[in-house]
Amino acid sequence: MSEVLKAPREMQDVRIAPSVEWSEEAKAAQKKALETPKCADAWMNLGLELRKQMLFREAIEAYSRGLACQPFHSMLYRHRGHALVNIGCYAMGASDFEMCLRIDPDNWSAWYHLGLSYHLMGEYALASEAYAQCLKRSYDDYHKICCTDWYCMTLMKMGKINQMREIASRITKDMVPGEAYGYFGRDLVYNGTNDPEQTLEQARKDNDHMFATGAYGIAVYYEYVLGDEKRAMEILHEIQQRNTVWSGFAEQAMELRLQGKAK
Fold it and tell me: Whereabouts are the TPR repeats (predicted)?
């Protein structure tokens, strides 16, 4: 019998992972949490401060401490799930979002990120179901625009182009996107209002993360709707060259596609 290979400690033990110095806000939040160790919200606030520094593993630990105090705290599951997705633990993230929704079935953010988790896992049917529920709970332009974007990309990858166009047609140019302007441009491409190349050129003027947000859906549209895989790959490589926010959702979806782990 051949010897079973075992992972070395540095691959598994998060206690020896390198870190960065915590911000003053994170240190203050830690002090508050340690002074009130049974306060779930104090641990959640610490996690949120750590997340700002992309210290996701440390944030997950803080959220878990909070859940040890209050295991039915829906927002702790929502925030921990988000951090898990940020580091590529998609199934674990989905589990937390599912738990959040058992406690708070109308949590828009949990439905949205549950769909995202399944999308990044390549479980598009499950993602579609989550986004359908999310869209039912989208009561203003901002939430409709955000949900429609990932919902439409999911439907494209399922080959449901007619359904995608019907969903996208609900987004109109007179809507007010707020911070969802990156998604807004993509939605208007999906429904035929905007030209994909003009939308891409506009996205190039933004910061790296918002460029990825604006460009990834254009790549998906080229590949799955227009059948132009070559142009899609060019756009994905352009996102890769500006990939400074490695934890972003569009950035992760881009990497999965270029690595051949998603289709």
Answer: 40-73, 108-141
d(CA 145, CA 43): 32
* 175-207 residue pLDDT tens: 999 999 989 999 999 999 999 999 999 999 989
The answer to whether 64 and 84 have CB atoms below 8 angstroms apart is no
Tell me which residue of 247, 249, 217 sits closest to 235, measured CA to CA.
217
- How far, rounded to the nearest angstrom, does the alpha carbon of residue 108 sit from its chain's CA centroid? 14
User: Which residue type occupies 73?
Assistant: H
Residue 22: both structure tokens together:
């915590």
Number of neighbours of residue 169 by Cβ within 10 angstroms: 14
One-character DSSP codes across 172-189? -TTS--GGGHHHHHHHHH
CA atoms within 13 A on the CB side of 75: 8
Which residues, other chains included, contact 199 with Cβ-Cβ below 8 Å and sequence gap of 6+? 185, 186, 188, 189, 214, 218
| Chain segment 99-139, per-residue pLDDT in tens | 999 999 999 999 999 999 999 999 999 999 999 999 999 99
Q: Cβ–Cβ contacts within 10 Å for residue 211, how many? A: 24
